């Protein structure tokens, strides 16, 4: 677990901005964006071993933007984002992964996707048996095992 | 500190160490096993938590370099396109594997005779048949007997349901006239020997909280311990010592408190698999064995075989099983045997993949460039999520001496023991095989109606199968152990893991590794009176 102080206020602001660029709020699907306060709090609280790479990615983003990301106009912000993703390497990939892994475990998001809000264990899932007659052609074709 | 001597000391409590311990227990010898890891607690397995997918990127990563648990040791695999993955605990990598359970084919033991490449094994498939069967009973396998293109097996449990994904794959393969069959797996499909049946937690690989997936901590080890085998955890072996006669006298290890200990033993068995075993042998240097123990052939660490995976996947309109089922359910042996018209020698098995969970789907699809940032993200994600089908070819890797495990001159583990270094390249033959597999996979997926096809060739973090680095054979100049697992150089030293494979076949190797371990244990029992002659 990390605490919020592991990223600076400027880094947290850029994280919020870039998260919304990755996954914006959608009224059509009735889901928050990844800049939602609850999702942002989850990211910051669980950065853990990813903190250093995420901070590195945000520093890279700040260098490309030259000012807080939110202050750029939309076209410039999109250009910076593309440059960031293309040149950011493992650090950028880690930042994006952190955003997505926190977004896709949010209750509101999972509910909209039709997931039950629970851990897989102990309830598990039910699997259809399927149509075993599909194997009939395979049996009919047969086969041999190669031997010396 | 010196401990009381034991008759048999086993290093490693994973797939092969557990099997050999259990088999030797009926000799009533004093058997001790040391493992660098500990007992896992299923209540802490990822599927017990809401954040189960996030854990795969941290303490439940398959890569020891990412995971960095205290039990792990670092591996320098910078010079390899395929990264080593494993798990270090009682049960070893059977705690963290897909439970896919094919056997090597009879032809895999005669590669030189049949195809003029590599070497034949010094034993044949028939020598292992009773041990495959015994192992299937002990591990508890599920499957459907009668596959016309696989060695005959008799799984004690019925196969996993086809689910939603299986019929989509089966219909596509039937359309193309290609072989497919429900996989043998070590997933219990009914209650079996104290294990509860599979309830489809979804992601078998990073441990099964239900206990339906066989790992040796819940299969072999309880039996072995009841039979008197002693197992000490959190004990990392540094080196094997020898005497003036060139016999192993025991091992030096660090106990759970980090204290250096010496454990004398009459027989030493190594079960650390294809990276851990050569690392230990190369770290066991003495005046008599200046190039590492059991290494008069110079082959310890050489001929590393990974199985390069060629994977292609895509997305269909119909829903697939996603994360609601064990990930692998079907295999194909259509391209398993040599057909030189394909442009390469040997072949590959295929394991079909049912799908992925939402976090994995989002992360990987964004990396592949098929899941956009911005307002279209939601629409595209809903098209991808829960609709994935995959085709993964396990390509036979032929032995090449330049693919090897050595000791890193700088990198060390937490006890200061030199870490392994991997040098590995994918051969031209393997590359052609991978390209062939991708083309066939594309045909299958397109026949299933899939679009947005994506490729991983090789799967970068796909170095599950660690084979060949202490190969078996009858010629001491061309092999490390003999045809029953005993070191040519050190007559009370045995190796029972994947490192003794001569060739790799084109299937997941754990079933064959354990059958070999049981076979070697049986050979030892038959030769107890003259084991060291």
Task: Please name the defining characteristics of this protein.
heterodimer, A: 148 residues, mainly alpha, 53% helix, 0% strand, elongated, B: 533 residues, alpha/beta, FAD/NAD(P)-binding domain, 11 helices
SSE arrangement:
The complex is a heterodimer of chains A (148) and B (533).
Chain A: H1 9-22, H2 37-45, H3 51-65, H4 74-87, H5 89-103, H6 107-112, H7 136-141
Chain B: E1 6-11, H1 15-24, E2 31-34, H2 64-67, E3 76-79, H3 111-115, H4 125-139, H5 165-176, E4 181-182, H6 220-226, E5 230-232, E6 236-242, E7 248-254, E8 260-270, H7 273-283, E9 309-315, E10 328-332, E11 348-353, H8 358-368, H9 377-384, E12 388-395, E13 404-412, E14 418-423, H10 428-447, E15 451-456, E16 493-495, H11 510-526
Parallel strand pairs in B: 1-2, 1-8, 2-5, 3-14, 8-16
Antiparallel strand pairs in B: 4-10, 6-7, 7-8, 9-12, 9-15, 10-11, 11-12, 13-14
Protein structure class of chain A? mainly alpha
- Helix proportion of chain B: 10-25%
State which percent range the strand residues of chain A make up: under 5%
Question: Which fold name corresponds to the CATH topology of the domain at 6-157 and 186-306 and 399-425 and 461-530 in chain B?
Answer: FAD/NAD(P)-binding domain
Number of helices of chain A: 7
Fraction of residues in β-strands of chain B: 15-25%
Largest β-sheet summary of chain B: 7 strands, mixed
- Label the CATH architecture of the domain at 6-157 and 186-306 and 399-425 and 461-530 in chain B: 3-Layer(bba) Sandwich
List how many beta strands of chain B DSSP finds. 16
Report the sheet with the most strands of chain A, covering strand number, pairing sense and barrel closure: none
Tell me roughly what share of residues is in helical segments of chain A: 40-55%
H/E order of the elements of chain A? HHHHHHH
What is Rg of chain A?
22 Å
Shape of chain B: globular
The geometry of chain A reads as elongated
| CATH level-1 class of the domain at 6-157 and 186-306 and 399-425 and 461-530 in chain B | Alpha Beta
Summed up, the domain count of chain A is 1
Distance between the termini of chain B: 31 Å
- What value does the average pLDDT of chain A take? 94
Pick out the low-confidence regions of chain A: none
